[in-house]
Amino acid sequence: xxxxxxxxxxxxxxxxxxxxxxxxxxxxxxxxxxxxxxxxxxxxxxxxxxxxxxxxxxxxxxxxxxxxxxxxxxxxxxxxxxxxxxxxxxxxxxxxxx
Length: 98
Prior knowledge:
- The chain is an alpha+beta fold.
- The chain has one helix at residues 82-96; strands spanning 4-7, 11-14, 25-27, 37-40, 49-53, 58-64, 68-72.
- The protein has one domain (4-90).
- 15% of the residues lie in helices and 33% in strands.
- Strand 6 (58-64) and strand 7 (68-72) form a beta hairpin.
């Protein structure tokens, strides 16, 4: 994983066949933290992108092997409305399991 700082995306889109499948395109609210730039991520070693931004570069990943990881390249606080955040947290909790 190699984070890179880049321009500020306006939306992120869930990637089909991943833990975010079906969440759709969600706006990012830059007014929450006042960020002008966000990170991007280059998934490696089998980690799938779980979000793309409006460029459409990867903006999140998950990985599951001997350990599990979910990484967002944007601030969670900026991810849509409370209902969007709740849906994403639910998916992440399911991914990590009991």
